[in-house]
Amino acid sequence: MSIEINGLEHVYSPNTLFEHAALKGIDCSIAEGKVTAIIGQTGSGKSTLVQHLNGLLVPTGGSLDICGFHIQPLLKIKDIKELRRKVGLVFQFPEYQLFEETIEKDIAFGPKNFGTSEEDALKLVRKVLPMVGLDESYLDRSPFELSGGQKRRVAIAGILILDPEVLVLDEPTAGLDPQGAKEMMTLFMNLNRKLNKTVLLVTHDMNHVMNYCDDVMVLDHGKLKHKSDVQTFFEHPDWMINIGIEPPALIRLKMALQAKGFDIPDDVLTLEALGNCIEKQVKAHE
Ligand SMILES: Nc1ncnc2c1ncn2[C@@H]1O[C@H](COP(=O)(O)OP(=O)(O)OP(=O)(O)O)[C@@H](O)[C@H]1O
């Protein structure tokens, strides 16, 4: 089931001195089973938008439909716990939410909270650990003795154990080194490709958008500026530049070569294709 967003508005602190319209009428449909990037400059409304998806924020105007829930202003969400099970939201630095004394207990917390027996919850923990690239040797360890990247895996396991349909990731690679970020992105892609989870990824990293996402939504000052598949998006670098986002290195290289007179079609979006294109033109001049 796709996620339908209709005229979504969010005003913080309405009717006060601090009133601020963060979302100004977002309309879009987000495809099921795909990885959709949500990008935009800082303050454009990305986090505000995704917090509506699991009921953390309620719209002040418009509505959204997600996983069988219809969410609109002043309408109490009937089973918010179930919505939060179906839509797993991973915040920036999720490791700060770990609190139990062992990793096993931390990951088992969610299902136990939903009434699963201790025994079944611990079985689920063992099932979910390899999904985040950890093994059973971690179970008895304290979450606090792990590295930042490992802690983040434990926090993500605590969300995956509830088998969400939609996984919303708000800057999940913030603060990780390039290798850690790559591993984290590979983990999410596997969840999408192997388990068919719909993934929404808030990111500032255009290389991640290019390498791992299917679709992209661009927010600008609380409005949806563009929505397209990733290929179309990177064929139009002006869409990024016009709202102050720097295109990834490959696109900048392509633009620099185009400016030097090389004839490079817009749909050339890999290093290999770019190399072939240049090679052909250099050979033609020899
Ligand atoms: N709790 C709040 N109260 C008032 N204004 C807020 C609140 N949270 C966010 N805002 C404002 O709403 C706007 C959108 O914020 P939001 O956090 O959604 O942006 P963002 O695109 O996620 O930014 P970033 O990339 O920096 O995380 C910003 O102007 C922000 O200052």
From TrEMBL:
UniProt-listed Gene3D superfamilies: P-loop containing nucleotide triphosphate hydrolases (3.40.50.300)
PROSITE patterns: ABC_TRANSPORTER_1, ABC_TRANSPORTER_2
Matching Pfam families: ABC_tran
GO cellular component, as recorded: ATP-binding cassette (ABC) transporter complex
InterPro entries recorded: AAA+_ATPase, ABC_transporter-like_ATP-bd, ABC_transporter-like_CS, ABC_transpr_CbiO/EcfA_su, ECF_ABC_transporter_ATP-bd, EcfA2, P-loop_NTPase
Subcellular location field: Cell membrane
Functional description taken from the UniProt entry: ATP-binding (A) component of a common energy-coupling factor (ECF) ABC-transporter complex.
Similarity annotation: Belongs to the ABC transporter superfamily. Energy-coupling factor EcfA family.
Name recorded for this polypeptide: Energy-coupling factor transporter ATP-binding protein EcfA2
Species annotation: Absicoccus porci
Lineage, uppermost ranks: Bacteria, Bacillati, Bacillota, Erysipelotrichia, Erysipelotrichales
